[in-house]
Structure formats: structure tokens, C-alpha cells
Amino acid sequence: MKSTARDGTENSLPQPGLAQAGSPAEAELYEVQRTIYPRAVHGWFASWRVAVVLATQLVYYGGPWLTWNGRQAVLFDLAARKFYIFGVVFWPQDFILLTALLVISALALFLFTAIAGRLWCGFACPQTVYTEIFMWIERKFEGDHLARMKLDRQGLSVRKVVLKAAKHGTWIALSLWTGFTFVGYFTPIRTLVAEIASVGLGPWELFWILFYGLATYGNAGWMREQVCKYMCPYARFQSVMFDSDTLVITYDGARGEPRGSRRRSADYRTAGLGACVDCGICVQVCPTGIDIRNGLQYECIGCAACIDGCDQVMDKMGYARGLIRYSTENALRGKYPERQIARQALRPRTLIYSAVLLAVVTAFGAALYLRVPLKVNVIRDRAVLMRETSGGLLENVYRLQVINTTEQSRRFVVTASGMDGLQLIAQQPVTVPAAGALTLPVALRIDPATTPPGSHAVLFHIEDSADARVRADEKSVFHVR
């Protein structure tokens, strides 16, 4: 029995029960993990990948330093239970909006995957982005793939120690800065800088800086493709969202086979060869170490590095580009010409995804636009359901939590309705600070002669004294014994 390793060599596997002394059978049943040394590649897709890396990191590292109305523009203040996103303040009561945002993200991922495969993985996933950054640092210190392979095979030397130390030192510094920026979204980043400068960093801030930094260093510096192949669940269930019209990276076997080396000036058709020169560049540039010529594999992250690498070889040989390209399974089978691939994007699956996504986005946008910047919670005093005042009236006591979600202070007036002769006793009007909350004690009184025993529905009305459009109504009950 034989198995084929990733490099194409065949390994003989002993039959069960036939292991010889000194050569345990179980040791040969597992493939030894080989270090992957991706080769640098240049091209159209590589340029797009660099642009996405720069754009995402500009947003990530620059976001905490932006200011808005005298505060940090993007801040998730967990202690105060408030999320600041530029001019909008979200409270725990806005959890439904967060749910909608997560649904939008999931539907968008489904739609993009059904149309063009793993675009997220290949260009915008944090694992891909930071692996690209770490490999760029690695190439700056140790050289391209051949130089790195040679350096790793060499014995211990001063040069090797210096290069490795410089590389890992840069990785660690970038990882810690990444962790520091992450915590800066939850603790005001300028406060965080002051705490670090005064050696007064809190234990939780220190823990998360080190934890996130260690995760970045380990995932992007050491594990790399192992995260995509074994840890990320998306690689496993992506095939559910693919169909024969999904645009994926493909090798044109009809044009490329049989593959083989040849002289640049030779006519490969006369020699009975295909366009593939069997140079292995597509494997050398792949960050997960697969051979795309073996067909689409779950390890493929859709980065298109093999397309750029193959196109460079085709240019040198004077052949047409596109031996490895974005295409669909049905196009390769000849069910329709490749110029009609874009038309196939409008198929039932993608149309349904698009319709649902558009509906959810529209609802989310409408909810944000119509969102009233006032939230009220009514809490009854459960210690005493009802009591009698000195004047003989029946009284129920409540606490109104009034939340002002805007960036300016507001004055509110409280009224109540639902029962004839209902009296409201409370401080009027009340001022709630910008992006703040106020707990207001309120008492409702009524004449027992006009009210039968039982529970009666009442309605509290809270309205901005200067803007009648900012108002909220909250239900409660009035108990009479």
C-alpha cells in the first residue's frame, strides 16, 4: 500500500501486523508536517492584496486615535455599557441592532462565497492579512524562499542568530502593538498610553494586550496555514455554499496537459505537450502549499497567488495568460463560454441571498434612521406594592431609568395616563446629561373611591421639553388591594 505526500513522492506503508522491529508501523502512518516557504510573487492580484492589507490596517491602527465631540470616536466602553461609534451611542437596549449587523455580515459572506469563492479568506481575513505582513518582514531580514530554506538548513552561527532575533523581535513588537491597539478600542487609548508611561496598567488591560499579542505572533508567525487548514471552520463548510457556477481559482487541464519542460523557442504542440511547463511556481507561491493543478481543495484560501505566478511564466514563454485563472466548473466543461460567467452570477441562489441581504440592510438602515434617542425603563418598587398616603389616597412607587443617547444634554417631562384621576408625583422637568442616564423616583396616586381592586394598566409618557419628536411611552401596572 502506498500514499502520495504533498511533494509528490510515494511512501510505502506497511500492512497491519507486518511492522518490523526498529521500524514501528504507527510512526509511518502520519505525514511529517513540512515547513512551507512561500515564494514572493508580483502581479495584479498581489497588488490588490497589498492594497487591502494597507487599507484594513490603516483603519485598525488609526481608528482608536480619531476623536469626535471631544472623545474617542470609536470606543466600546464595557464598564459604562456604552458603545461610541462616531456620532452614535449604542446602549445594551440596542442589542437587536448588533444582532442585525451580525446577520448582515453572515449573509454578505454567503453571497460573496456563492459568487466568487473565498474572497474574504484570500484578501481580508485577519489571519491572511497578518500572515502577509509577517512574511514581508521575514523576507526583509532573511530573503526570499530559497535564502530562507538555506538559512534554516545551516548550523548555528552568529549571522543566523542575529537574523532570527531581528525577525522575531520585529514580530513581537508588531504583535504587542496590535494587542495594545485592540485594548485601545475598549479603554481610551490615550488613557492607556498614560497608564503604560506611569507603569499603572491594570491587570485586565495587561492580560489582553499580552493575550492578543501572543495570538497574533503565534498565528501569523508560526502556525500560518495551519490555522486556515485545521482551525478555521470556514474551510470545512465552504463547499456547501459552492456550486458549479461559483467563480473559483481553476487550472485549465485541457490546455495545460500533458505538462512538461521544453525550450522557450520550441513548439510544444508539435512535441505533444500542453501549455504547462511543470515549473512548480504555482506550488512555490501558495501560502498553504497545495498544487492547484490537482483541482480545487479545501486548503485553497483563494488568494490568487498561483494566478500571478503562472501568468509571469506564461509571459516569459510567450504563451497566453490564464492557464490558471478564475473560472467556473460549468465554464471549464464547456456548458457556456467564459464571457458569460458574469451573467451566471444572477442565478436563483445568489438572487435569494441578495434579496434577503437587501431586506435586512434596509430594515437595519430604517431602524437606525428612525431610532429615537431616548430609552426608558420602568421598575416597580417591589418592596411595597401599594400604600395609603396621609390624605387617604392609594400610592404606587416606581423608578424610571431615563437614558439620553445623544451627544447633548436634554430636559424631559414625565406624565402618566390610563386611569381617571391619576396623579403623578415627581421632580419636573429632569435634565439628563449627554450620553447619560438618570434614575427618577416617581409616585402615582389615585382616589380609592373611584378605583376597584386589582391591577390596572398605566402608561408613562416621557417627552423632550424642547423637541416633541423625542418621546417614549412605557407600560406598567397600578395595584389596588
Describe the overall structure.
With 481 residues, this protein is α+β, with helices and mostly antiparallel strands. Strands 10, 11, 12, 14 and 16 form a 5-stranded antiparallel beta sheet that branches. The chain has a 4-stranded antiparallel beta sheet with strand order 15-13-17-18, with no helix packed on it. A 3-stranded antiparallel beta sheet has the order 5-6-7, with no helix packed on it. The protein has helices spanning 25-28, 44-62, 95-116, 119-124, 126-142, 145-153, 158-183, 189-197, 203-223, 225-231, 234-237, 253-256, 281-284, 305-317, 329-332, 341-344, 348-369, and strands at 2-4, 10-12, 67-68, 71-72, 74-77, 82-85, 88-90, 248-251, 324-327, 374-380, 387-388, 394-404, 410-417, 423-425, 430-432, 437-446, 454-464, 471-480. A hairpin with a 6-residue loop joins strand 17 (454-464) and strand 18 (471-480). It folds into 3 domains: 1-34, no CATH class; 35-371, no CATH class; 374-480, Sandwich (Immunoglobulin-like), CATH 2.60.40.10. It is built from 17 helices and 18 strands.
In short, what is this structure?
This protein is α+β, with helices and mostly antiparallel strands and 481 residues long. The chain is built from 17 helices and 18 strands.
Q: In terms of topology, how is this protein built?
A:
Blueprint: E1 2-4, E2 10-12, H1 25-28, H2 44-62, E3 67-68, E4 71-72, E5 74-77, E6 82-85, E7 88-90, H3 95-116, H4 119-124, H5 126-142, H6 145-153, H7 158-183, H8 189-197, H9 203-223, H10 225-231, H11 234-237, E8 248-251, H12 253-256, H13 281-284, H14 305-317, E9 324-327, H15 329-332, H16 341-344, H17 348-369, E10 374-380, E11 387-388, E12 394-404, E13 410-417, E14 423-425, E15 430-432, E16 437-446, E17 454-464, E18 471-480
Antiparallel strand pairs: 1-2, 3-4, 5-6, 6-7, 8-9, 10-12, 11-12, 12-16, 13-15, 13-17, 14-16, 17-18
